[in-house]
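Team,

Forwarding the record for the chain on the shared tracking sheet. I've put the sequence and predicted structure together so nobody has to dig through attachments.
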Amino acid sequence: MHIPIIDTHVHLDEISDPEGAILEARKSGLSAIIAVGSDRASNEKNLAFSKQYGGVIFPALGYHPWNITVSGVRDNLDFIEKHLPEAVAIGEIGLDFKIPLAREIQQGVFEEILGLAWKNDKPVIVHSRLSYLETYESVRKHNVKKAVFHWYSGPIDVLKDLLLMGYYISATPALIYSPKHREAVIAAPIKQILIETDAPTPYQGKVSTPAQVLQTLTELSKIKGMAIEEAVRKTTQNARDFFNLV
C-alpha cells in the first residue's frame, strides 16, 4: 500500500521490543505513530523515542487515571505543562469509573489537564470507560477544540452529541469482536474517525503491535463500504489534521 498509515494510539513504552515494533510497523506501511503517555516515566520515554525516531514517533503527554496517585499529581502535571511544546497532544487522560480510585480525585486531575489543553491549544486523547457522558461534558465545558474519545464503546446519544461538537472517536482492532465499539464506529462519519491499535493491549488473547493497525483498517473499510485505500487516505488525513502533522 503506497498511502502512509498513522497509528494514533500506541503505548510504545510498554512494548517489550519498541525498536522491533517500529521497524515492523514501517515495513507494514506506517509512516507515523502517536506514542501516548500514562505518567511521568512513560512521558519521558516517549519524548526520548520522538527524538530518536524524529518524523516517525510523535509524543502525546498524559496522565492515565490508572496511574494517578495523590502524591504524584503535582509532579506529573508540572512535567506535562513544562514539556507540552514538544508534544502533539495531551493523552492519555480521562476518567475510569471501573477502578477504585475516587471519582473526585480523577475528576480533579482531568479538569486541570483539560485547562492546560485549552490554554495551550492542544488536542486531547480521552479515556472514558464507564464515564462517557462525564468525560464528554468536561471536555466541552473546557472549550477544548480537538478531542478524540479513544476506543469509544458508549451510548449512541452521547456519541451523537460529541460528534456534533466536532470531536472524534478512534477505531481499534476490537471492531472484530466488540458489538458496542462496532456500533459506535458505524454511527460515526469517516471524517471523525482515527485509527489505532492501543498496542500492546491484547486482542483475543494476543499482544498487539502497531503493524496490526492494518486489521483496524480492513474492518473499518468493510463497515464503511469503501476500498481500504480510501479508508487509509481519509483516516491518515484525519490524523494529520487532528495532530497538526505536516
